[in-house]
Amino acid sequence: MFGGGTETTSTALLWTILFLVNNPDVQETVHKEIQNVVGSGRQPLIEHRNNLPYCEAVMNETLRLGNIAPFSLPHTALEDIVIDGYRIPKGSIVVPSLNSAMHDEKIFPNSNTFDPTRFLDDKGKLIRHEHLLPFSLGKYNTVRIMVFNATFTNISVISWWLVLLVEQTEVP
Description:
By secondary structure, the protein is mostly helical. It contains five helices and four strands, in the order αααββββαα. The chain has helices at 2-22, 24-37, 53-66, 98-102, 143-158, and strands spanning 75-76, 81-83, 86-88, 93-94. The strands form two sheets. The protein has a two-stranded antiparallel sheet with strand order 1-4. Helix 3 packs across helix 5 (143-158).
């Protein structure tokens, strides 16, 4: 559990940095929100989380588009079922594609575009999106804990630095 959490959190941090470098306007908004809520030179605390909706929206979008875990853990069909015309017999091993869910144009329009505002309502409040499945799905999904840890760790790191390109180069 520790190793998996460490890997996903560090990968989420790398994706966050990549998306912020490519979207300096988003980075500026994140930094301003942290400065307004937390203040300068202070570490974000758990109490700040509900007052950092844009930061959390950035993490949600990073986890969605960064595709940290493209597949869920294998599941077993408990009964015969038909999904989109495909028959899945009871006892079949099913490996859900989280990637296809995260890039479904009906759920996430312009799914290949980094857009944190898709997780905010008109008033700037965070929208809890039931289709955000960055790590797993199923009855015993630990996604909420993992998303919170990744979000909070990344917000803590981002609060100390702005990520800038040294010179005009092609960004990966």
